[in-house]
Amino acid sequence: MKLNEKGLLIVISGPSGVGKGTVRKALFERKGHNLDFSVSMTTRKPREGEVDGKDYFFVTKEEFEKEIKKGNLLEYAKFVNNYYGTPKDRVFEKLKAGKEVVLEIEVQGALQVKSKMQEAVFIFIAPPSWKVLEKRLTNRGTETSDIIMERLQKAKNEIMLASSYDYIVINDEVENAVDKIIAIIRAEHARCERALEGYYKLMEE
Ligand code: 5GP
To answer: What's the rounded Cα separation, in Å, for the pair 166 and 151?
Structure first.
């Protein structure tokens, strides 16, 4: 019998350009865990190499707005003129099946999840410095300078919201950040409010 029957919802968030996508991908490349990535829905156009259904579900604005109206999204946000959101059903099904579900989302969305699911684990990925963040956003090369400026301004406001999270992980080196996230997940499993009920059941067997 597993000690923890119910899956854990792990929210990885932080400002744009902090490298949370890279950290999340590196986390999923690590062996020895059973994490499940929640594929988001977006109205943004696919970037080169991105695969529909794997990186995102790419939809039109009309399709996205229909999903909002139907209440099918756990959270959503408009980010630099595009919608991004988390399909609700898949997340709940996986959690019910005892899986660990990882959301990689921006800050507004993370705060919406927090207001609905306090039991989730909220991890804020932070840049080692403002200069590093600026450099990462500028060097990305996928956006125009207007969009870069907009994302930088947004990042400034978002860093102020780190105190709403449970953990802060500084993304100095990707592999260090992944080590810390894995340590956080392990520790969260051992929290009494999660583990004790399962432990008492084990003792009764
Ligand atoms: P990008 O366009 O670079 O893939 O993503 C832009 C931002 O949207 C990133 O900060 C990313 O983490 C965030 N994002 C991706 N999926 C979701 C989602 O489902 N909900 C929210 N709120 N943000 C998302």
So the answer is: 24
Per-residue pLDDT of 180-200, as tens digits, reads 999 999 999 888 888 887 888
pLDDT of amino acid 2: 44
Per-residue pLDDT band at 5 (split at 50, 70, 90): low
Ligand 1: which residue has its CA nearest to atom 2? Answer: 44
Rounded Cα gap, residues 189 and 121, in angstroms: 10
Report the domain count for the chain.
1
Query: How many angstroms does the Cα of residue 184 sit away from the middle of ligand 1?
Result: 22
- Does 165 fall in a domain? yes
How far apart, in whole angstroms, are the C-alpha atoms of residue 121 and residue 205?
30
- Domain extent, residue 110, equals 9-38+99-204
Question: Does residue 187 lie in a domain region?
Answer: yes
Q: Answer yes or no: is 88 within a domain.
A: no
Cβ of 136 less than 6 Å from ligand 1:
no
